[in-house]
Design a protein that fits this description.
By secondary structure, the protein is an alpha+beta fold. It contains eight helices and 17 strands. The two termini are 25 Å apart. It binds ligand PPE.
């Protein structure tokens, strides 16, 4: 992992190696934190953050679901993120804000623990590998079901909830696959461990709806918009497991993974990335890197503060 010089933590810029928490930090014991994954891309106009306000809004909503009052406003977080990227001299990076319950009383009632916040940035390459992004990954359906709305809140991007993804990821990586696909508690296709999923069949694009316990992915929304702008029909409906194997094309979307095609599912061949996947991937990549005029408003150019 590439480190950066500075991390922003509770209102201050601190050296990477000094960004520390106490061992009795509540979130470390009980997973009581929420986070975001955001990417900043090098564009002709300089570094620019993809759908920054949308990510910060989701962070606030996740915090609210766990009864945490955000210690900073959206604008404050946006500005310090710009400054952090500039002060680290980064042209492109991954951005990880975390809002969490800090050191305080032990025990499950977190309400007396302080709500703390940090933002870390680092250079992060293709999450499922450059090869996977270009030629597709091998996926396997996990035996673990995606967290159900009966026990947790699938729409919250909360730290503890990721134990579900961690179990699925370990299961399939030990079996030699690149990524896990989780079914939801009803047995329909939900998503990857950190990506939403799209299925293409007979020219139509299908993706599971919110009722399938998915995370409301910001890239998912962007890709739906791009695909519709390209003239494709995109349908949000339940997807049966075997539809993955019967699909003409399957791809994943997420901030870390961007748009990554799936070439094999449960040892059944889907094939190399198809025409629709490639077309959507190209426009999406242009949007991320500021090459698509139509989607320019999705980018938040990093404003370099004068003191940087
Ligand atoms: N589902 C899950 C479970 C998920 O974690 C992500 C993002 C998505 C869907 C796609 O959401 P979006 O990025 O808004 O399009 N996963 C983040 C964390 C990945 C990680 O390994 O850490 C990410 O991609 O940043």
């Amino acid at each position: 992992m590439n480190t950066a010089d500075l991390i922003w933590m509770n209102g201050e810029f601190v050296a990477w190696e000094d960004a520390k928490v106490h061992v009795l930090t509540h979130a470390l014991h009980y997973g009581t934190g929420v986070f975001e994954g955001i990417r900043c891309y090098e564009t002709e106009q300089g570094p620019a953050i993809f759908r920054h306000p949308e990510h910060l809004d989701r962070l606030r909503r996740s915090a609210e679901l766990y009864h945490m009052d955000m210690p900073y406003t959206r604008d404050e977080l946006r500005e310090v993120t710009h400054e952090l990227i500039a002060r680290n001299g980064l042209r492109s990076c991954y951005i990880r804000p975390v809002v969490y319950r800090g050191y305080g009383p032990m025990g499950l009632d977190p309400l007396a623990n302080p709500v703390e916040c940090f933002i870390a940035v680092w250079e992060w390459g293709a999450y499922l590998g450059e090869e996977g992004k270009a030629n597709g990954v091998r996926a396997k359906t996990s035996s673990w079901r995606r967290i159900s709305p009966e026990s947790l809140m699938p729409q919250a991007k909360a730290c503890g909830q990721y134990l579900n993804s961690v179990l699925a990821k370990i299961e399939v990586s030990k079996a030699g696959y690149d990524e896990a696909i989780l079914l939801d508690h009803k047995g329909v296709v939900c998503e990857g461990t950190g990506e939403n999923i799209f299925v293409v069949r007979d020219g139509e694009i299908v993706t599971p709806p919110y009722s399938a316990s998915i995370l409301d992915g910001i890239n998912r929304r962007s890709i739906i918009e791009i695909a519709r702008d390209l003239g494709y029909r995109v349908v949000e409906r339940d997807v049966a497991r075997e539809e993955l194997a019967l699909a003409d094309e399957v791809f994943l979307s997420g901030t870390a993974a961007e748009l990554t095609p799936v070439r094999e599912i449960d040892d059944l061949e889907i094939g190399p990335p198809g025409e629709i996947t490639r077309q959507v991937q190209k426009v999406f990549d242009d949007a991320l890197h500021g090459r698509a005029e139509r989607y320019r408003e999705w980018l938040d150019p990093v404003q370099v503060p004068s003191k940087a």
